[in-house]
Structure formats: structure tokens, C-alpha cells
Amino acid sequence: MTAFRSLSTAMFKGFFRERTALFFAFLMPLMFLVIFGLIFGNSSGNKTKIGVVGDGPVVTALSQSGALDVQRYDSFDAALQKVRGGDLPAALAVRGNEIELRYAASDTVAAGTVQGVVGAVVDKANLAATGRPPLIRLDSGQVEDSSLSAIQYLTPGILSWGLATSAIFGAALTLVNWRKKQVLRRIRLAPVGTGTVISSRLLVTVGVSVLQAVLFVAVAMTPVFGLKLAGQWWLALPLLVLGSLSFFSIGVLVGSFAKTEEAATGITNVIVLPMAFLSGTFFPLQNAPGWLQAVSQVLPLRHLNDGMVDVLVRGKGIEALALPSAVLIGFTLVVGFAASRVFSWEDS
Amino acid sequence: MSGSTIVADGLRKRYGDLWAVDGVSFTVGEGEFFGILGPNGAGKTTTLEIVEGLRRPDEGTVLLLGESPWPRNPKLLPRIGVQLQASSFFERLTAREQLETFASLYGVSRGTAADMLELVGLADKANTRENKLSGGQRQRLSIACALIHDPDIVFLDEPTAALDPQARRNLWDVLRAIRERGKTIVYTTHHLDEAEVLCDRVAIMDRGRILAMDPPATLVRGLDAPTHVMVERGLLTVAQATELPGVDEARDDGVSLTLSTRRPAVVLSTLAERGALDGLQVRGATLEDVFLELTGREYRA
Ligand SMILES: Nc1ncnc2c1ncn2[C@@H]1O[C@H](COP(=O)(O)OP(=O)(O)O)[C@@H](O)[C@H]1O
Ligand SMILES: [Mg+2]
């Protein structure tokens, strides 16, 4: 066996024999998938409610439209009470051909939605009553694949974050631990080069990342979560490798100047969490100020994230890899160079 | 430099205001078992690491097999085997896996691992993980890792520190076995008694300097120190004992009666005539007495 292969083997075994590392690498991202799936998956909870008294074609059409959450009340007064109290955005009463709609203007979005939907249903009922075909026809539909749901966007984000966390932690902790326990010095006394040591650790990082991705995507594709991959999903593989490379370089940098495992853990957290939020892993960045979005452009997680959404979900082709790859490679070179400047084989 | 495997000349190393190594010179011949002794903080580890090429001396030169170990000299690395003071193992690997990994770092066949486990008496622990080994077993594994590539020179830093007496004695057998294989061994210890038993030659170090360097027997004989003869108390009174021919001084410490003499033969035959040899112990001078003589301080590890 070559030194490269046996060092990689030793590190793979060390990794798979530790439960904490396995938990953080494989179970933690799945836990986040479940949590975020629960938060964003249940979209019916987001529908605007309306209190309804009476019956008729308009109420039937409203119920069938699915645009509003129709709740029945016995008396209009009771429903109005709720609207005034802020428990209901709007109430509607049917008296023959008269329809009375009252809404709370304090919630402008809900008020607008209710007025729009009810107005449209009433207009349609009026048009139907004239017996004439509509003059103008509206054909509307969403631009994304009709299967597109929250899970499609969540999966690449959580996966990228999971890869970043375990790659940075893994590399940093190995270095700190090996330096502290003098394993690095001991290796230094054997006729193996620095390149061999670093590249074998890198192989472990990339290998673990690929395993993480396979497991994570496999679980996300089960009917419970319902992820559907775009045709050219395999384009995500080069991204995955480049992403691991850049996270590895961060890990080596942290592991180069941290003296203890505690310090390495702290520094890594300080890097990973803000990076995750700035990269739009958990929340979209559209509403963030411009300068913040500009900052996020230098973060590897941001580009891994964007690239993964493009090729895994949006079905974009190889051209979508260009920008993320360039940034990830550039980032790795810069941080890797910095790490090589501060790296040391031993304490003091 | 006929026969000199190691030549260290005028080594000095400073940490802040402290000269951890302050002018150390010695040579070690091929196949020699050389001990560097001294209390904690004497500068043993620093000296050893300079010789191994792990640290750069502020002054002085080292030649190992005719080559300088600093800066890192890849030509020399396969010819030296090092056990660092802290056991340095790969996390969560078994004893055999540690050895196999080190074997391939040196491009040696993995089969050697089994031989090494046998040599250090760990064959039955081959599949035990590093963190489940006892202190003595860890030290032995660490030594096996230093020997895996069959080096010419072996450096061992305090291999017997923190071991119980039984484990220490087991390790002595290992060290003797390595010696039989014709290796040059440099080892440090703060157990002076052990060095006396194992080493061909020792250097006694204190505060960064070598105070004396010779075979242990030569050092002890050079002392001209009295021999202590101990018997059970109650056989003789202190006054009676002091009167005996050849006895310089007698002491009763509450457990035994100790007689100091420079003519042990005379004292022993007199005691035998009186039938007063119960619980007899004879102790000559030791390296600890040498240390006391050299430094004026009691030896404390
Ligand atoms: N890296 C270091 N930085 C500062 N002081 C050190 C360092 N290494 C050793 N020393 C000091 O140098 C002296 C000699 O240490 P060392 O060589 O480890 O002694 P020994 O091995 O005999 O116990 C000690 O006083 C120790 O505190
Ligand atoms: Mg020491």
C-alpha cells in the first residue's frame, strides 16, 4: 500500500468509528430537512381565512376556488365580532342577491386578497348569469415545473450547509488533534511529503461529502418528502467536489492556527453559521440589503447553494456550473494559500 | 569518525531566558545503548529532539550517520526510528492498524506488523484499539511503531515513565531484545536505577548540561562511596555495631540496622560469625549517589 492510500484508510476508519462525527455528518442534515419540511411544507396553513354566513352559488364557488379558507358562521354579527377582534381578516354574508363583505383594513395583504378573490368570483357569477361567453379569456399558470414545492428549494440548501459543516469541522479537528497528540510530528519523521498528508485528508473530506449527498438526496426523494431531481442531476457532482475543496481549505486554515479542539469548534461555528444565513441556506436573500448580497457573493456556500439549485432542481445545463466553479476554485486557492502560510507541524 | 553513529557537538537551545540545552556534546558508537539521564526539566527531550532533527539548535551541530538531520533530511528518515515522549497514535485504530499504517508510511510490507507485535509482546492485543490499551501497552506499541521499518538508530524518550514496576520490567526485556538486534539505541529516562541496569554508557544531565558521561559502573566506582549493609534491627545495638571492625557508621531507622563500610568483606564475615545476618541486604553506591556527588542535591525525578 502506498502512504497516500494507507493514510486515507486510517482517516476513514477514524471517522467512521466515531459516533459524534457520524451524527453531525449524516443525521443532523436529515433532522434539518424534517424540521424545515414541517415549517414550509404545510402551505394550507398560510391561506387567508374568511367567515361566511348563508349559502348560494358564490359561496360554493368560493369554497371550490381553494384560494380562501372558508369558515361557516351562524350569524353575521358573530363573524363581524371576530373581524373587529382581529381573529378573522374578513366576513361575508349572503342575503339573496346581495352580498355584504366586511374586512379588517389593518391587514392590508389579507384585505387585498379577500377583495380580489371575492370580486372575481362575483364577476364570474354575474357573467355566467348573462349566458354570454366571456369576451377576454385569461390563461394563467406558474413558470416552474408544476411539481415545484418547498422541498425542491430546501434540499440543495440544507445539503450544502451539511457539507460545509462537516468538511470544515472534520479538517480543522483532525489537524488540531494530530498536532496536539504529536501525530503530525511523528508523520513528519517518516519519509512522506506534506502533499501526501494533505491530499489524503482531502480525499476523506470529498468521500464523506459524496456519501452525505447520496444519503441525503435518497431520503429527500422518498414519498414523505417528495424531492424530484432534474434530468442532469449528475452535474451536481463536480460542484460537490469543488465545494468540499473550498470548505476543506477553510478547515485547514482554522486547524492551522487553533491550538485546542474547543478553539477550533468555536471558530468554525463563528464561520459556518453566518455563512449559512448569508448564503440563503435557510431563508431567501431577496429581501436582504444590496451590500449584504454583495458580501454573500464571495462565500463558497452561496455559490454551491445556487449551483445546486440550478442543476438539481431548475434543470439547467452545464453552463450553470461556470460561475460557481470559478468562484469555488478561486476561493480554494486564496484560502489554501493563506493556510499554507500559517500551518505548523507542532505547537510553538 | 570511525564507528561514531551519532556526533553531537556544542548543542545549545534557548527558550526565552532559559537555556534548555546549554552546551551538550557527545558521541554514540554503532550498536551502543546510550542513556541520557536526569530529573524532569533537565533538557533531555530537547537534546533528543535536536538530534532527531525535529528542532533546530541555536548553536552546535549534529551528524547522524555522517549527515545533518536539520533541515528535515529525507535520506536519513528511513534509518532512524523515533518514539516521542507523548504516544502519538492515529485515533481509534487498533494496535495492528497503527503498525500497518506506519509500515506503509515507510514503504515496508504490512506483514512486518505481526512480527513487531510479537517482539513487544502485544500479539494478543492486535485488535484492541489504541485508547483501550494500558499505559505499558501503549508504550510498547509506540516502540513497535518506532521499529517497524528496521531503522539503524532508535530514539526512545522516557519509554518507562509512568509505568508500574512490573510493566517497567517487561519493557526492559523489550529494550534488551532490540539491543540484541544490533541497533544503536539512545534513550532518556529519569529512573537512574533502570539506566544502571540497561545502558552501556550514560550521560547525566542537569539544567541543560552534561555533568558526567561514562559506563554506569565506572561512574559508581569513581565515587569511592561506602557500601551499606542492612540487617534486621534487634540483632545488635547501634553501639555494638559501631564497635565492629570495618564499620564507619551505624544507624537504626526503626526498621533495620544500617552499617556503612568501605570494607564490606570484613563486616560481612564478622556478622556471619555472630549469626547476625537475618534480613541481610547489601547496597553499593548507585547513580543516585553519583548525582548527589555531582550536584550537591538529593536526586528527585
Ligand atoms: N517548547 C518549549 N517552550 C518553552 N520552554 C520549553 C519548551 N520545551 C521545553 N522547555 C523548557 O526547557 C526545559 C527542558 O525541557 P525538556 O527538554 O523537556 O526536559 P526533560 O525532557 O529533561 O524533562 C524545561 O525547563 C522546559 O520547561
Ligand atoms: Mg522529557
UniProtKB/TrEMBL annotation, chain A:
Keywords: Membrane, Transmembrane, Transmembrane helix. It comes from the Bacteria. It is found in: Membrane. Residues 115-346 form the ABC transmembrane type-2 domain. Its main location: membrane. PANTHER family: DOXORUBICIN RESISTANCE ABC TRANSPORTER PERMEASE PROTEIN DRRC-RELATED, TRANSPORT PERMEASE PROTEIN. This is ABC-2 type transport system permease protein.
TrEMBL record, chain B:
Residues 6-232 form the ABC transporter domain. The keyword ATP-binding applies. Pfam families: ABC_tran (PF00005). It is a peripheral membrane protein. Keywords: Antibiotic resistance, ATP-binding, Cell membrane, Membrane, Nucleotide-binding, Translocase, Transport. CDD domains: ABC_DR_subfamily_A. GO terms for cellular component: plasma membrane. InterPro entries: AAA+_ATPase (IPR003593), ABC_transporter-like_ATP-bd (IPR003439), ABC_transporter-like_CS (IPR017871), ABC_transporter_ATP-binding (IPR050763), P-loop_NTPase (IPR027417). GO terms for biological process: response to antibiotic. PROSITE patterns: ABC_TRANSPORTER_1, ABC_TRANSPORTER_2. The keyword Transmembrane helix does not apply. GO terms for molecular function: ATP binding; ATP hydrolysis activity. It is found in: Cell membrane. Belongs to the ABC transporter superfamily. This is ABC transporter domain-containing protein. It comes from Kutzneria albida DSM 43870.
